[in-house]
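User: I want to check something. If I give you two sequences, will you return the structure for each one separately, not as a complex?

Assistant: Yes, each is folded on its own. Here is the first sequence with its structure:
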Amino acid sequence: MATQIEPRPILGVHHAAYRCRDAQQTIWFYSEVLGLVDKTGIVLEEVTGTGEIDPYLHLFFRMGNGEYLAFFDAPGSADPDWFKRKESFDMHWAFEVGSEEDLLAMQQRINSYGVSAVGPVDHGFVKSVYMYDPNGIQVELTVRVKDHDAILGDATAKFDAALAEWTARTRPAKVANSGLRRLIAAAATPRSLKEYPVKYERIPYLVLFSEQSAFKDTYGGEIGKVSVECHLLKSEEPSDAVVIFSHPIGGGAYLPLVSTIAKMGVHTIYCNPRYRGNDTALIMERAVMDLAACVRDAKERLGYKKVYLGGWSGGGSLSMFYQAEAQDPRVTHTPAGDPYDLTAANMSPADGVLLLAAHLSRNLTLTEWMDPSIEDESRPWDRNPEWNLYDPNGPKPPFSAEFVAEVRERQIARNRRITKWVKEQLAELKAKGLEVHERCFTVQGTMADPRWVDPAVDPNDRQPNHCMLGDPFVVNDGPVGLARFTTLRSWLSQWSYDDSNADGLKCAARISCPMLVIENSADDACTPSHAGRLMAAASKCEIEHTVIQGANHYYFGQHDLAQKAAEVVRDWVKKQR
């Protein structure tokens, strides 16, 4: 057994740190009103230790004993609700003065600045006055009474018995409220951090299965084998329920919302389908089969009895496609006519679906983002200026309802022209005896939704001339635009307005299960009509709907808002059980 290292002396408090609303306001209160004139601060652009971009000022006030009171002025990640006045039990600090005369003098000084300092309040061992700082934190000034040490000394002699009685009296309510089952068996004074559950453990693993195909559509890997990369984010608190996230191209295992939900104690799995990071040849029917393999493994190997599908962004329509085929199996072929029998997959229906900042589906969303000024795919740079949102001489916001309606008709017509050409190409290949051959092609102009130019179209709190991928004018023809690089079969499965089996609205109409819809009010990808249309289509589902005010699509730089969304998910999952 290793030798126990003796504890080293803790010399005191170097600093206690909290958020502040504004550094200048805070300096006024603590320096000018309270007299802590010895101050300093450091401006940093990223969070030390994590590298996350969140510029902040770290402010320090030095007290008479050399200890510091510190604040973070970090407006990019601050939640305005944090600065509401806090109850004394939730947060306050007490500064000590030398005499009751000093206490009363400071109270008079503070009141002269227009700050209300109430008291003194006699607590028996100290006397105190109270006020609030500009950040909603209660501040106490306190002085020890003559018998201070004797009073606390008497309390110390009785403390062990008092603690035991208090623990017996309050432990059941704590366990019921917090679900910390380990508290039941823990000693009154824990001896080790191991007696408490960690936030979560991340466990990467693979789900492997065999699949015969006439051709290979992913690079690398053994032919005839599919590898689905998964991450289990598992709290030490046992659970028989898990939320499984997936997305057609995966890649979200480390997104803010996924990890924040895990930190709430919700067991979470992120499932990366075979097409992780590359949707060039993606077939939605295969992606849903990969999700089915993950669900099956979660139930059969990991032992989860309840499975909820976490449909974030493009994962929403994938989750609904899975649930529709599990409850109402229909698909036996891809839209290109290739055999792929989901009805024989014996998919187990999920116990609920979560649509979290989810868009309609890949085919419908792409269509609404297509550039209506492209009228000939063989000449994508010849654009009709009458419909070119980015042409200096093109249409300018605000756009009329009639203009937007005509744009939508032109977008659908463009999608159908591409689909017609794709089917002709496939028919030509088959006529030549090249049934399993493919053709790759590019689609330009796929980020020209009037929403990105005119914030009054499907309005929310998003920025104008901005989308979740950046400047929409750049994205419209840039390498990250939807469907930029694709294949004949992939176009029909993912992007075809009429042919995709993963159409979110059609799938939503086929499912019947509890559904949680979280909408972000500043979403720069999925505007309010996405959630509205999906909820209207899911008429057989019992739906709970929440809007996270101010949240963008990814919750980037918005830790507090990601936590709010995660709390909604946690509470919803608890209610289902």
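And separately, the second sequence with its own structure:
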Amino acid sequence: MIPSAFISYSWDDDTHKEWVRKLARRLRQDGVDVTLDRWATAPGDQLSTFMERAIRESQFILIICTPRYKSRSDEREGGVGYEGDIMTAEAMNKQNHRKFIPVLRKGTWDEVAPSWLSGKIYIDLSANPYSEKNYKELVRTLLGNRETAPPIGKPMETIFHADRSSSKQLDDMAQSEDSLEEERINKTIDQAVFLQQQGKRDKAIENWRAIAQVVEGIDNDLAARAWFSIGYLLENPEDRISAYDRVIGLEPNLSEAYNSRGIAKAALSRYEEAIADCDEAVRLKPDYAEAYNNRGNMNAALGRYEEAIVDYDEAIGLEPDFAGPYNNRGIAKAELERYVDAFADYNKAIRLKPDYVEAYINRGAAKVALDQYSDAIADYNKAIQLKPDYAEAYNNRGIAKAELERYVDAIADYNKAIRLKSDYAEAYNKRSIAKVALDQYSDAIADSNEVLRLKPDFVEAYLVRGDTKTKLGQYSDAIADYNKAIRLKPDYAEAYNNRGAAKVALDQYADAIPDYDEAIGLKSDFAEAYTNRGNAKALLGQHSDAIADYDEALRLKPDFVEAYQVRGDTKTELGQYSDAIADYNKAIRLKPDLSKAYNNRGNAKALLGRHSDAIADYDEAIRLELDYVEAYNNRGAAKSSSERYDDAIADYDEAIRLNPDYAEAHLSRGAAKRALGQIDEARQDFEKARDLARDADNDSTADASEQNLRDLGSQEDE
């Protein structure tokens, strides 16, 4: 009978594919019916069906081992990974290990052997040209011509006195019954493997259970493997654990069972128990890279990132081409904010496994953390290309685009993520933030509401909704959201800071300061909280204390534009005009389009009598912000001080056009008209300023308007 063999190999490159073809052709010439994919398949064929049939029907499987084959087999990638699933299932359940013959093609055995083949005897054809002696050994194995032990001679006749004919009949009957039972079991195993390959999970489980029930207590090794297959197929983690318990009861030294039970326990967040199982797996099998990798994942889930890295190091040391531990080690390093190191690990994972979607996602996240937003988007694009229905990739790409202020594009990505995953609370939350940036406040709140419907304890959503309500002037409602965030997360520094800001908006300056204190206590380098506390103190007239807070904010964050701006404002209040101008200069150098800094620097210069310089600053503020009402009013004041009353009135006119209720502009325009002798028009402006100021409870402007009206009356009496 001519032996049949199927060759399982990876398409490393054209040279390797040609080497495999030549080996197959030579084996056929030497009497072996070799099946090779390039000979046996054509366009339109189902590759999965071909692989299943070839492995099932061939007498031998030749496994051509290279580093790439190992990687794809261990990671269960592509055709090699699919073939690996079929072969490991058959080898485990039929115990026909000799069917699968490893062939070393390149590298060392440890570098190229898939995990399930480690420890097997292999044929070494790695030399170039390969060893003829080793090739002939392969052929003899396939043809069944290997050297065997010589026959055992007949025992001494005097030993046996029983009726041999009757004994032989009984033996033949027993063997016949055993043979039938074995045939039935083997048929059930074949059926279970086939059902498993077809994805018919429940039917496959039924068959494996039937096998376990028949052989348990007779062949515990086979029973254990049946229960192992059941555990692999079951979806519920508790049920899987029960199945692996049965395996371990039957085969206490089976390391794979401990590893798999650990994975199931981890799915239930029973991480300590899971780690104990992985400990036992590596004790039984010290070179078990997958168990080290899994234990690393469990340590990482417990926040033990340094311990996780040690496990990943061990897995990588055992299997340097195992992409998974590199990716996972990168995640652990990223959690420790070691983004550059994480980046290197993701690169290695991708080099080993170019279609590793999760590694692209994680590398993109590391790039975002390093402010490399465009490069991050390229990684997310690649992930989406590889897996077009990957909601997380769209969400993360949206985050990177938002960082580049491409909010419309970001929203489009969040929309796609939500369409793919309708309960994706994180995507709704990020979309809400992007809508706030586009001033779409009502829509943003609707998204936050949806987040909290899906996930009522989503702390950040309360913060985001509170921030949105603050922008809408709904300060009390915003404070209620910040309260909820703080109840859920008492150490949420940002929530205390933002609640303080809402209280300031409600003129609750003294109440705001304890919130800022708490934020700073929780996050000592929180520059924004120092700045905001400084603002509250300035509003309470505590200017020196306010400046101390601004100083600390700038020590922590030397490029903090807002801190220079408000410190300049406070110094202006203290009459320290030159120092204030220095702060405004720094703010403008950091942010040349900051219109408010130009306006306020103009105010400081005007107070020093430098009216021309002040006007130049107001000009720039207005150029940057055409509807900057206060800048028009201030420029008008500087022009009035230079006795350019007509030009000043033009500026006041524009300020009033932009804001008809601007009492100060009416007051200033009245003063300019009075200087030009336009008494009636001046009186109208003073009266308007007084009325507007009273309506707004602006006592100082109302009093100034009254005083000007009295002065006009006295002037007329004279």
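Because they were folded independently, the notes below concern the second chain alone. Confidence is low (pLDDT under 50) at residues 154-174. DSSP finds 38 helices and five strands in the chain.
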